[in-house]
Each structure stands twice: as structure tokens, then as C-alpha cells.
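Please check this today:
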Amino acid sequence: MNVSRDSRPASAAPPEERPTATPGPRREVPPPPGAAPPGGRRSRLTELRGPGVRPRSLDARALAALAANPGCRRRALLDGAGIDKGALAQALGSPAAYGQSQFAIVRGHSFESRVKSDGGTELLRLLHERLAPGGPPPAPEEVATPDLSAAGPEGRAARTALALREATAAGGWALLDHPMLVVEVAGSPAYVEPDAVVVHPDGSWTVVEIKSFPMIDGSADAAKVGAAARQAAVYVLALGPVAGHVGAHTGRPVRVRDRVLLVCPKDFSNLPTAAAVDVRKQLATTRRQLSRLTRVEEIAAALPPETTFDLALADDGKTPTRRPEELAEAVELVDAAYAPECLAACELAFHCRKRSREDGAVEALGRGVRGELGGLRTVGEVLAAARADGPESAASADGPKPPATEGPDDPAVVALRRAAALRAEALGRPAVPGPRAEEPGCH
């Protein structure tokens, strides 16, 4: 399941080149979409990471979080360059305080092994029951389980494309265990690894997500299901270009199903159960948001040539020797788009929140508040606009002034002044009203 595969170590990170079209001389493999990035950009991204620092892979969980906040140029650059944001946050003195416990990871490993045991018999039974009812599930000997091992992530992506093509051409059932897919993010390749992909006899493909949170009485926690759906949408998006290549080579119609199979423990046991999850909405959102991301080379080109996020690790390979002040200066050169939701999705969220609060940015209060305040960008501007005597007097008073575009007739200013008047009226009265005149007092 993704607790074990979506957090890949730095040593398993892909190189900066687009995967090649052929894994070996024996057969041509359909290439992932896009062209290879230019060597000049690879050199620049290497400088940003630091000499000898391997790039970190960008998994589906990070991609879903990045798509949810496409305006954050800081995260787009750091993720595109393969920089370890967790280590960077630690060196800045604002370490991330979230993550999965070791117990959850071990439990996830155990549950996934159970689901995929005996050649995936139970997994295919659940899939057939939820997505193709009306007939018996395929027997284990009727299901192909191709070997997807290859050198490096680009080799595994090529081997996955070849296995999908062969399984689709064969016209039978196939179970691909942890295939490797590639998706372009801001002009850079990102390698993602779903738990499984099932090829149906009709040529359609289904993404399988295996999670360790329970499904009680047929339903699971809505927030966790939503996160799993956004993650699965990344896999469906990555399979799209491969399906196009496979369809062109095999002559068969290939369709990536927009309903994924979510497998979870049943109630409080370790027995698997499943539900079909429609990810069309998440797929459309992810596709749109990723297309809005500024290309990494454009963000990098706007930085001073000497900018680097290298931690200058000591001989132990863990202790940074670079001063936090220097790192903070480099990080602040790239614009961020902080929102409270970042706290659950980005390792740099605590650093960005601290800076946002120091600047008095209203974004720290949430996207909903930011949208309601219109052109008011800081807390100081909001407080100045809320003054009942208007912006004219605020101009002569101490403190920040509201922007010229936010006049007294602006809806945000009207609402703020009304709220300020109600607050002043409420604070001017006793906190607990006394008894009415016609009523006896309490004894």
C-alpha cells in the first residue's frame, strides 16, 4: 500500500532525465509523454540541490498536495528540483510535525501482503464483486502477473508500459503489482507507484488503492477516502498517455477506468473489504491544477545565479553545516502561497506559517477568509479598514492604512465595520446580564 511505497528514500530517487523508450534491445517500449529536459536545466537544478546530492522522488501523495496549491512557486521549485523539504525544514528550525507512525507502516505492510497473497486471488474477487458483478471471478491460473523489475525508475516505467501493452494485447486478466508510472509536473518527470493496476479482458485498466484505515459497516472516514481518491487520480492521470500508446500499438480500444478500487480492513479485523470510488472530480481538478503550475525552469531562472538550497552536510551525511540564516534567505527568494491546509501536506508549512504571521498576511487565517477580504492583504489593513471613522482618519493615525481601492463602500469594509460595531456593542455590556426587574434575584 502507499504507506510503504509513496515515501521513497532519496537513494531511490530518479535522475533528472525523461525515461527512455526502450528498456532493452529486444523490444520497443512506448515512451512516457514529453521530451527530455535540456541539459542546462538539469545543471541548474543540480546547483540548487548542491553537489553530490541525489534528487528525491515526487510521489503521488506529494503530487496531490502540490495540485491542491498550484500557486505555491516555492513548493513547485523544491519538488521539481528534488530537494528534501523535510531536511530543509529541520535545518531552518521549523521541522515538520506530521507523518505516519512506525506501527501504521508495519500494519500497512502486513495488510497489503494479505490482500495480494495467493496471486491476488482475494484482490481480484473484490474487484470482480465491486466492478464486474454477474459472473465468477477469474481463477488464479487465468491471471497474468508480469515481472516488473528493471534498473532504476525509468527502466521500471518502461517495463510497466511494455507489460501493459502485452497484457492488453493478450485479452485476458493481468495484475501488475506496484507498477511504475511517470507524470510531467511543471516540466519535470515525477515517478509514481500505485499499489496495483488490473487489466481487464475488455482492455480497460483499473487502479487499486490499498489503505490500512478501517471501513466500518461499508463506509470509511470521509477525509481519508477523499485523500485516497486524490492520490488515485494522480495514478489515473499518469496511465492516460500510456493507454494512448498501447491502443495505437495493439489496435484495441484501451480505457483507464475512472472508478478505482479502494481496499481497506473490514470493521476492526484484518480481513479486506473494498469499495468502488469515482475519481472523475479529483481527476479533473488534478489535471487542471497541474497544468497551472509554473515550469520549474522559469522559477529557477528568476533566482540569482548564486542561489542554492544545499545544506552542506557534515561527514556523517546528516548534520547540516550551513547557517540557517543563509538557508532562510534562499528560501524567501521564492514566493510561497501558504494556507492552513499546508500543515497536513508540506514539510515547510511551519516555516511558511511563521513568516506569514510575521508579515501579518491574511492567508494565515485560511483561503476562505482571504477570499472574503478582497484587496485587504494584511491583518493591519483589515484592522484599519474596520475603523468606524473611515480610512480618512486612518491615514492620519498610527498604523497601517487600508489600500486606496478599498473605500468605505467596499463590501468587505462595510462588513468589517459592522462586525467591529457589534463587537464594541457586545463588549460594552455586562458579560452576564442581571435578573429582570420583575423577577426575583437568584438565592
